[in-house]
Design goal:
- The complex is a heterodimer.
- Chain A has a single domain, classed as 3-Layer(aba) Sandwich (NADH Oxidase), CATH 3.40.109.10.
- In chain A, about 40% of the residues lie in helices and about 15% in strands.
- Chain A has helices at about 5-10, 25-35, 55-60, 80-85, 90-115, 125-135, 160-165; strands spanning about 45-50, 70-80, 115-120, 140-150.
- The two termini of chain A are about 30 Å apart.
- In chain B, α2 runs antiparallel to α3.
- Chain B is mainly alpha-helical.
- The chains are: A alpha+beta, B mainly alpha.
- The interface of A and B includes residues 60, 67 and 158 of A.
- The structure holds flavin mononucleotide.
- The site of flavin mononucleotide (FMN) has 12 residues of chain A, from β3.
- Chain A: InterPro entries: Nitroreductase, Nitroreductase-like.
Chain lengths: ~180, ~110
């Protein structure tokens, strides 16, 4: 599947089949993470891929935005100190979140290309998740991505009109 | 049911109740800063989780389940079409009103 097709079929999935993910899917997610770009190649982010059902259950208790019973949860974490050391102030303040967002998109699209459902979730208790995962000081969980095979048909996408989102050559100008 | 089966059922339910309590508490904390529209959605999710718990404990009411099904179907509309979401909640509430009226008419007999 090409990238644009993966983009177009992706939808947030909040209900999953009780089926685990084959190792190839996890391997592809790992490849996607490792090939994701980062400002000045700082690579300060850390990712915890959780597949143990007990650990997923613990996470779900403190992640109110995570719906359904996913087969895996990827926890995307920032590392402010490493960002500062490897990339400087801008990386520590802003780019580490940009980098994490790009990595998130790579994970979502890789899943989509393999017809694996996913949903990003920011609604969770950061300290609770940090404790559960045993994250060291300075490494903060910022986003969860659930993964699994969807058991629901995709719901329709609601998008703003194109002219509200995209301009050409100058702000507010329509396509030439 | 043997004693061992009963004990494992109780432990399972205790765990589920702990899932539920932690979820509700974390939701309450989250809503302090989350978008307003998440409030109704979290309450609907809490309601559904509570009803699943009751069902697994052997307490079941078709009318309540129907009402939840209506909400469930429209739950995702809370951010994209709040009016349709509100109407689905109205529909679900009116189903519960019917249950309430049925109950009070039988209690007066
Ligand atoms: C940064 C971010 C955080 C999100 N957090 C949550 C969340 O906590 N819970 C949830 O159900 N969906 C969450 N979503 C999913 C959005 O609700 C979803 O992407 C949006 O409604 C558009 O729908 P679509 O992904 O199907 O295109 C999040 C999405 C993003 C990008």
């Amino acid at each position: 599947m090409n990238v644009l097709d993966a983009i177009k079929i992706r939808r947030s999935i909040r209900s999953f089949e009780r089926r685990s993910l084959p190792p190839e899917v996890i391997q592809s997610i790992e490849d996607a993470i490792l090939h994701s770009p980062s400002g000045s190649n700082a690579q300060e982010s850390h990712f915890v891929i959780v597949q143990d059902p007990d650990q997923i259950r613990r996470i779900k208790r403190f992640a109110q935005g995570l719906s359904g019973d996913p087969a895996a949860v990827v926890v995307l974490c920032t590392n402010k100190e490493e960002a500062l050391a490897r990339g400087g102030l801008d990386t520590a303040e802003v780019l580490r979140f940009v980098n994490l967002g790009i990595a998130a998109a790579y994970i979502l699209l890789t899943a989509s290309s393999l017809e694996v459902g996913s949903c990003p979730a920011r609604s969770f208790h950061q300290k609770a998740i940090k404790e559960i995962l045993g994250l060291p000081e300075g490494i903060e969980p910022e986003l969860l991505i659930s993964l699994g095979y969807s058991n629901q048909p995709p719901r329709p996408k609601s998008s703003k009109p194109v002219r509200e989102v995209i301009s050409y050559d100058q702000y507010g100008k329509e396509k030439p | 049911m043997t004693n061992t089966e009963k004990k494992s059922l109780e432990e399972g339910l205790q765990n589920r109740l702990l899932d539920y309590v932690s979820y509700v508490l974390t939701s309450a904390r989250g809503l302090y800063k989350e978008p307003h529209s998440y409030g109704p959605m979290r309450m609907v999710d809490s309601l559904e989780k509570a009803l699943f718990l009751l069902r697994d404990m052997g307490i079941k009411d078709d009318a309540i389940e129907e009402s939840v099904a209506v909400i469930r179907e429209n739950r995702w509309r809370v951010t994209s079409d709040p009016e349709a979401f509100a109407q689905a909640l109205d529909d679900a509430i009116l189903r519960l009103v019917k249950v309430t009226l049925k109950e009070s008419s039988t209690s007066h007999e």
